[in-house]
């Protein structure tokens, strides 16, 4: 019972489900070959903290802060990234 | 003393200040060209300093050397094949962790690499301190601190480059960039396998080749196949064995694991060399973005900026435009007086000066526009524009970055289409190339100014704006259609850095602006000059025309009539009569010129095409002008000038009057503007499209579909407008 509650707080979620001004830790980066490698090469790797700075006025793309710099991803791409410990 | 030469390649991430450093080292001694085979801009510069002749090459800015984009391929091939004496990696000190990704890749290629930690002042201000000595030790790379925009550390950088080039550089056995045991095992196995089977050297070194093969690098694979021929079968088999082994071990592709490992390795370095003070600081750049990419006012501000850009371009540009116009008028007037009347004088005044002059007046507009675009780029606003626009661009099936070449299309399609190289996916690139010509380029503007100015008076601004909008809307529609028919498939990833805002350097802005304006000037000196002469010839020949009426006899009659009147008149009446006489002669001369234009080669060609254009409300003069516009859009105006037989001096008022008294109406002017907006882009652009797409098929397609759309749009405007009762 208690475990269930703890689990629900820390349940892994998709990066695209995060709200503005939340931070999370990247658990997994999915997606197809080229896109996935490109995302990883930009430093969006497993174990990295990621901060959602803002959504663009039309709700897409997302501005993120990772490794101290700002980068943007489309929502559909962010949906390939699983995050944990969202605060 | 013999001067020694030293070649340096500048590598680095986009926005690392690489171009600023390049400009600081080389100043104006730059040569801008293309990398062989591809159209990525290649900047080279030379400088003599410290007894050396430096040859500096600015590599394209990249985040990685994995060959995804043309830029990355170009940068990597240059380092591997051309073997510059020293590679300087410009690293944005405030963005060390990500920058080190490229740095570790450069480190793996055994080239003499030197790190320039740039903008350390900005990093310090953000509370970031970097231990350069430690970094140098850890990666065994000399490290120099620079502040590009203040020109600090540049001399030290060059001196370090000399030291590095002169040093006995040997590849140490102890590898600095290492992976985990399993990967290292596979690398050494494959390395040994390669060393035993390939006698001579491989690009870079065996370890690097092995790493790239394990990463499934397509270009390295191709090279191995080329080099080893039949033996490549065995090598590729061995690569597959190692890859499969690693894949099953990590339950993921080896290249993914290796990317993560590199970042892991980098994280280790960061821990040792970087200290961040925890004091809370105001991040100016983030605050600016609170406004500029704000949910509510982000877009209005964006529109405002674009509007301001056009205002500046066209209102501010109007002043120097007038000066140029009047000086061309002055030159042609004086030449007209001094030169004897002959065919050569006609060619010089009516062909060359009138033709090139009518284009030269737009130089101020173009300079200002390119300055504004450089300002957007150098401040960092351009990527915000892409951030704001991506959703919309994505509707067309394009990348937010496609917005940049499309925006530049408003300046000139030639550099704009060149700018599509920043797009990673071939599909995005081709699609952007196809729809960019709908962005009304600055050369089309003179046509709008003349037509809208003549027929719409005070509403000219609004009309021109609508024409621009029409181009944008049609590009969206056609983009959408192409995306779902010709270019089906997955979109390119939208992974874009939003660099911190920077105060741009005037010098960089000017160099940027100048590089692009040069293209326009070259066009003027070449293609427009030739086209002007050709059009002059077409409108001058044949020389012996049978006129309907004997204009010369009419002029003589007028002269004779007034001669007697003037001789008998008293003082004030004399000038009055003289005035009347001159007016009458002018009218007759114009009629003569117009008839001559009609019966010239050009007129005949135009008449042959007229049936195609008449449903659009465009007469044969318009047809000729539009045909000549294929050479360059600006020529449409000068051709109209010649055909309406306006005065020799470049008097835009005269053309206005001539147009107003012609058969043209506001509606046909609008149709013509729409046609000019959409039809086949100019010769120079077509040439660039051919080069960028690398395909005749796409080039022909681009010409055909744009002209078809132009005709349809103009038809709808003229016929539809007519039905609605407009005229």
Report on the structure:
The complex is a heterodimer of chains A (87) and B (727). Chain A is α+β, with helices and mostly antiparallel strands and 87 residues long. Chain A has one domain (2-84): Roll (SH3 type barrels). Chain A has 3 helices and 6 strands. Chain A has helices spanning 2-9, 33-41, 75-78; strands spanning 13-14, 23-29, 49-55, 62-66, 69-73, 81-84. In chain A, strands 1-6-2-3-4-5 form a 6-stranded antiparallel sheet. Chain B is an alpha/beta fold. Among the domains of chain B are: 4-166, 3-Layer(aba) Sandwich (Rossmann fold), CATH 3.40.50.300; 181-250, Helix Hairpins, CATH 1.10.287. Helix content of chain B is 65%, strand content 8%. Chain B is built from 32 helices and 10 strands. A 7-stranded mixed sheet of chain B has the order 2-3-4-1-5-6-8, with helices on both faces. A two-stranded antiparallel sheet of chain B has the order 7-9. In chain B, helix 16 packs antiparallel against helix 23, helix 26 (601-613) crosses helix 27 (620-628) and helix 30 (666-678) packs antiparallel against helix 32 (696-723). Chain B is elongated and about 110 Å long. The A-B interface holds A 32-46, 48, 53-61, 63, 67-74, 77 and B 63-64, 66, 68, 94-95, 97-98, 101, 253, 255-256, 259-260, 263, 286, 289, 293-296, 298-299, 387-388, 390-392, 394, 400, 424, 490, 493-500. Strand 5 of chain A pairs antiparallel with strand 10 (496-497) of chain B.
